[in-house]
Amino acid sequence: MGGKTFRNAVHAVAAVALAATAAACGLGSADTGDGPSSPPDAPVVDVAATEQIDLGAYLDLGVTETGLYTVTEDAVVGFDRAGARRWTLRAEGSRPDPDRVEAVPFAPVLLVGWDDAAGLVAYSTDSGEELWRTEDEEWAQGDIADGRVSFADAVTGERRWSVELTSFGCPHADDPLTPVWLREVVLVRCFKNPAPGGRGTDQFAAALDPVDGSTRWERQLTGEQIMVIESANTLTIEHESGETEVLDLATGGLIARRPAAPGSRYRLPRPDGVSLVMDSTTLAENTEMRLEEADGRVRWTAPLDEREELVPITPGVTGNILLATAQQRRGDRPVWLVAYDLGTGARTVIAGPGPSVRGEQPIVTMPVRRQQVAPQVAPWGLLIPGTDGSVAVAPAE
C-alpha cells in the first residue's frame, strides 16, 4: 500500500483560516468554538515598534523559528529578525528553486531544492550548516504506510518513532486520513467501519505525542458528528443537533459547549478562548464586529466604516492583536494592514500607502495588498512584505 504523507501542519491550519476568511466575504459560513490559551510561541507583538528593513532584492521570502530568509536568483539568505545577514547558501552551478524552499514548522530547519539537482537539502536556520539531504522531491515528516504511522526528526531527517494504527484503535485500513502535526500532538484520524468503495462511517481520532508516539488521548465519533481542526490547539466536534463541543488538542479535554447558532453568523475562533464575531457572512451587511468570550460575553465592539471593506486575516496566532486588511471601496481601492488590540479593541494602522479612509496614519508607509502578499507570524514577531519588495517587521515584546 502506498503511504499518505504530509509536509507540515501549516497547510491544514491555513485551510481552516482561509475558509473563515472566505465566509467573511460572503463565500460560505463559519461558526465554530473557542480554545484554552495562546500557543506557547504566540508572540506579543510590539506594533508601535514596526519598522522597515532592507533585505535586498528577492524572489521569495519567509519566516523561520528564529529569523527570516529570502530566495534570490542564485542563493538563499538567512537574516535575524532585525534584518542582519547571518548566512548565505549557494550550490555550485545551480540556483535555488523558490517553489522548493520551505521552513519546517516548530524546528530550526530549512528545506531547499536546487535547480538541476534531485532531492532536497536540510540546513540549520541558526547557522546555515547542512544537516542532511534526501533524493526525494518532497520530505514527509509524518507518514502512514502498511498499517503504521511514523514521524521523523527534522534536525536529523531520521525516523523518530513508528507505531501500529491498531495500537490506538484505528483499523488497518487502506484509507486513513492524513496525519496533522500541531506542535503539541500528531493528530491521526481514520474510519472504524471502512466501506468498500467509500470512506466508511464512525470516525476515530487519536492524538499522539510527537516525541515518542505514545497516545495522548483518543475519541470515537458516531453518526453525523463532524470533527474540524479550528486552530493551532483546538478542535471542534459538531453534533447533528447543531451543538458544538470544543476540545483542547493537547489533552482532548472539553473546553466548552456551544449551542447551535444562526447559520449566517461569521465567527473567527482563536485558541485563547475568544472569537471575532459578525452577524452576517456577507461583509457589506455588517456595521460592527465584536470580540466574544467563550461564554458569549462581549469583550469589546468595534464599528465598521462603510467606506472600507475590512477582512480579518489569520497568518498565525499572536498573543495580543487581531490582524485585518482594510480596503477602500471606491477609487483605486488601496489596502491597509490594521491591528485590533485583543484587550480593548483599539485599532492601529500598521502599514499602507498613506492615511486610511478614517484619516489614520500608518506606522510604516509601504504598499500592501490583500491576500497576494500576506504577513507571516513567527515566535520572534511579525513579517510584513510589501507589494513592491519592501519589508517591515514588528518585533515581539
Spatially, the strands of the biggest sheet line up as 26-27-28-29-30
Radius of gyration equals 22 Å
Give me the secondary-structure category: mainly beta
- Mean pLDDT across every amino acid position: 82
Helix segment tally: 1
Low-confidence stretches: 1-37
Please tally the β strands and state the result.
33
Portion of residues in beta strands equals 35-45%
Instruction: Note the main sheet.
Output: 5 strands, mixed
Top keywords for this entry?
single chain, 5-stranded mixed beta sheet, 4-stranded antiparallel beta sheet, mainly beta, flat, 33 strands, 397 residues
Q: How would you briefly describe this protein structure?
A:
The chain is mainly β.
Describe the structure.
The structure is a single chain. The protein is mostly beta strands. The chain has one helix and 33 strands. The protein has one helix spanning 10-24; strands at 4-6, 51-53, 60-63, 68-71, 76-79, 85-89, 96-103, 109-114, 120-124, 130-134, 142-145, 148-152, 159-164, 177-181, 186-193, 201-208, 215-220, 226-231, 234-238, 244-248, 254-258, 266-269, 274-278, 288-293, 298-303, 308-313, 321-328, 335-341, 347-352, 364-365, 376-378, 381-385, 391-395. The strands form eight sheets. The chain has a five-stranded mixed beta sheet. Strands 1-11-12-13 form a four-stranded antiparallel beta sheet, with no helix packed on it. It has a four-stranded antiparallel beta sheet with strand order 2-33-32-31, with no helix packed on it. 39% of the residues are buried.
